[in-house]
Specification:
This protein has 13 helices and 18 strands. It is an alpha/beta fold. It has 3 domains: 118 residues, Rossmann fold (3-Layer(aba) Sandwich); 228 residues, Alpha-Beta Horseshoe (pyruvate-formate lyase- activating enzyme), CATH 3.80.30; 56 residues, OB fold (Dihydrolipoamide Acetyltransferase, E2P), CATH 2.40.50. Helix 8 runs parallel beside helix 9. The chain is globular, with a radius of gyration of 22 Å. 44% of the residues are buried. Bound molecules: iron/sulfur cluster. The site of iron/sulfur cluster (SF4) has 10 residues, from helix 6.
């Protein structure tokens, strides 16, 4: 049932977690809009609240519960929906939270409006498909991005089985979006004026694996040929999915941003083996050397887990030395969080929280030092920034990400928002850079 645009019921969203979740939430916003719902900020009273959840750590679960309770308090008569990864792995726990009316896991989100209306007429609804169940890639078409960048989901699920990770049980088996559907969405977003397209997936490198046809390298070759494409950025790709062909494509295609997020997790071989990761530190170092041969200035960002069971001072010191040697441009540090139902949660030699905190502090300090060193290499040089937003409290200044994922601010007219702007880097500005426009935006 489609209602008149603009004076229909209201819906508010709270989204936690990764780029895949952000992309899905954007598509869900559009789904409700197509059914006449008006999106309002989460802080406001709404008829429907959607909390799109993450479950990667126990802290994420806690944050999700806080957002759910906040929605119920804000409007006790509202239809509160909990969707996504936390709802998938703990549906009973979520459904038991007072005020929750609809629980949807990581499938069937395209039916969300229908489920809301069923719940309003017939009472609470729980729609959670068992994670092991085979399923096609769920299309959640995207007409628009957020601000200047559009996140396009092309892959779902993961079967890697890393021993600390709950994601496979939240997201299920690997599913690939057919290349034609992926291309059609990117074409739509190019026509809508998005200059930067970010390809996302739960395990992006596994694109095409279960279909046996086009892999990630093949998809990239197709996408970079699309007329009007500004630039393409990849979200996270696991180290062992960098085929020779993928390295060739990333080295040769100027329209692919020279920025790769490649999770390391540990710089210690024994720890990687206990984690069930499928590479060694030497493999990882060799991969970065191959990638940097093609694009020496590329940014490599990564994730590292601190305090995995069995990690002692010696193995942590090896991780520190390895991270320093890899000269990452940005580091995401995660203290190990035992997840119920994962093998590592019952491993011996769990590391004390205080030790995890202290090691995280040391690794983050190293990460900041490496980030400053990397950004410093671009002083006086020209980068191309996607103008994402005005700088709060700094009139006439815009900010956004460069091709190598540096945050750059520069004086600019709001008419530049959403466009790719050549900027000469003049100085540092906190963790970012300051520059001036140095050519025509496009
Ligand atoms: S690759 Fe490993 S860490 Fe990443 S989502 Fe899959 S199981 Fe989790």
């Amino acid at each position: 049932m489609v209602r008149e645009e603009g004076n229909g019921p209201t819906v508010a969203f709270a989204t936690l977690g990764c780029k895949v979740n952000q992309s899905e939430a954007q598509a869900l916003r559009e789904l409700f809009a197509r059914h006449g719902y008006r999106t309002v900020p989460f802080e406001e009273e709404a008829d429907v609240y959607v909390v799109h959840t993450c479950t990667v750590t126990h802290l994420s679960d806690r944050k999700c519960r806080q957002m759910i309770r906040r929605a119920v308090r804000r409007n006790p008569r509202a239809t509160v929906v909990v969707s996504g990864c936390y709802a998938q792995v703990a549906p009973e726990e979520v459904a038991a939270i007072p005020g929750v009316k609809v629980v949807v896991g990581t499938r069937e989100r395209h039916r969300l409006v229908e489920l809301v209306e069923e719940a309003q007429e017939q009472g609470p609804r729980v729609c959670v498909i068992p994670w092991q169940a085979p399923a096609p890639f769920e299309e959640l078409p995207l007409e628009a991005g957020e601000r200047a960048r559009a996140f396009v989901r092309v892959q779902e699920g993961c079967e890697e089985g890393c021993r600390y990770c709950i994601v496979p049980r939240a997201r299920g088996p690997v599913r690939t979006r057919p290349p034609e559907a992926a291309k059609a969405e990117v074409e739509r977003l190019i026509r809508a004026g998005y200059r930067e397209i970010v390809l996302t997936g739960v395990n992006l490198g596994a694109y095409g694996r279960e279909r046996g046809d086009l892999d990630l390298a093949g998809l990239l070759r197709e996408l970079v040929r699309l007329p009007g494409l500004g630039r393409l950025r990849l979200s996270s790709v696991e180290p062992h999915y960098f085929t020779a062909e993928l390295v060739r494509v990333l080295a040769g295609e100027e329209k692919i941003c020279p920025h790769w997020h490649i999770p390391l997790q540990s710089g210690d071989a024994a720890t990687l083996a206990r984690m069930g990761r499928r590479y060694t530190p030497d493999d990882y170092a060799a991969l970065l050397a191959r990638l940097r041969q093609g694009r020496p200035e590329a940014a490599v960002t990564t994730d590292v887990i601190v305090g995995f069971p069995g990690e002692d001072e010696a193995s942590f010191t090896r991780t520190l030395a390895f991270v320093e040697a890899m000269a990452f441009s940005r580091l995401h540090v995660f203290p190990y969080s035992p997840r119920r139902g994962t093998p590592a949660a019952s491993f011996p030699d769990q590391v004390a929280p205080a030790v995890k905190a202290e090691r995280s502090r040391r690794l983050r300090a190293l990460g900041r030092r490496l980030a400053v060193a990397y950004a410093g290499r671009f002083l006086g040089r020209r980068l191309t920034v996607v103008a994402e937003r005005a700088v709060p409290g700094k009139r006439g200044f815009l900010t956004g990400h460069s091709e190598n994922y540096l945050e750059v601010s520069f004086p600019g007219d709001p008419a530049l928002l959403g466009r790719l702007v050549p900027v000469r880097i003049l100085s540092r500005a906190g963790e970012g850079l300051l520059g001036e426009q140095a050519g025509a935006a496009y």
